[in-house]
Amino acid sequence: MTLNLCVLTPNRIVWDSEVKEIILSTNSGQIGVLPNHAPIATAVDIGILRIRLNDQWVTMALMGGFARIGNNKITILVNDAEKSSDIDPEEAQQTLEIAEANLSKAEGKRQLIEANLSLRRARTRVEAINMLSQ
Amino acid sequence: MSCSNLTMLVSSKPSLSDASNLSFRSVLNPFQLPSQNSPSCSLSRSSVTPVQCGLRELRTRIESVKNTQKITEAMKLVAAAKVRRAQEAVVNGRPFSETLVEVLYNINEQLQTEDIDVPLTKVRPVKKVALVVCTGDRGLCGGFNNNIIKKAEARIAELKDLGLDYTIISVGKKGNSYFLRRPYIPVDRFLEGGSLPTAKEAQAIADDAFSLFISEEVDKVELLYTKFVSLVKSDPVIHTLLPLSPKGEICDINGNCVDAADDEFFRLTTKEGKLTVERDAVRTKTEDYSAILEFEQDPVQILDALLPLYLNSQVLRALQESLASELAARMSAMSSATDNAVELKKNLSIVYNRERQAKITGEILEIVAGANALQ
Predict the structure, then answer these.
(1) Chief subcellular site (chain A) (predicted)?
(2) pTM, whole model, 2 decimals?
């Protein structure tokens, strides 16, 4: 029994095939999903999605969204998703440094919110690459 | 383009009776100093066309019109190819928005009785409005950018009349340059659109709107873009982006709300050999959820995660429609430019040929007269 995983972003379908297991980061912690999981709906935090295909793990950075787990069918709707193989390590590191600099410069509630969001995203991307190399 | 100041009337029936006069004129022409950008050098489209150029100048002019025609035709074909790509982008975004709408509906059904308190749906008394203006990056697209900017100015005037404060988020180089030249209009941020709107750009705009709204700097965010009606018609419309209605309705400023499930998608097809656009009103089937579906978190938290997704997809859709309208406007502008170039070339060729023939006739007459005089 395999799970069917669909990762959708507003402008394309990032992943649409069968997997053995996934580990998802939600607002309330990480959850692992195996075949025949109980149907749940959950919000997805800005974090890492790990997919297992035949003892091989693929990492993907997700930028927040929603996940619905049904009869062996998982649908994940996110703002943006990037496979760790598609992320350039140096560029991700640079983006992280810029985001950190912006956060320390941020003034006012609004800039803080924005800076926080971009920092979390940059951090997720860097983590995705680091996890791949493990 | 250099033209001499000498006017030569080209009538439909060329009169060769005054041959000596014509030869005199054609000799004079090369010695006339060409005037730069003379406003009198015009070619009006009537049966009597005054042309003020000599033979050589006419030839260069015909060449340049031919080149211009090639360019405009190429631009039209490029725009047509890009409309197809834009359409594909819309189709690719469909699975996302369909699933999103489905989930939104189901959650709302379950939350009917509860009091929802999601910050993005909070309706506050409006003191300041943010207006997101989507323009294009390049010109040569007819009235497209102008229409949007006029609509933006009209809306600004309305808001001023209502006594509300406003700020602009400008997307696209044309809008950016317009607002940069007018420092009296408060602009929050200038953003560049790409050639094809991606989720990242939509996210940047959505982030901006999100932070403005949540930090309570503005109380309403409106989205101004061109709706793609058909290949020759596009309408600038204003939609309220924030506050979102929990049911996922898209509201006009006049309060006309469209249910998110009744979304329209446009398709570029051919009908009787011509490119047309068909809009399909797709009603996504909202199937009943399995009742045992549990929410891992609070339904409110889930809504909190869903509504920014919806915001993003709304912004992306607006950007895609704007792009499609811009491409369609460019297509029709370049098509009429090509037609004009063809007509201009035809007129110029007629004039050129007449003048060339007149010159030849004059030379023949000179030779004959000279030969006669020798006898």
Answers:
(1) membrane
(2) 0.74
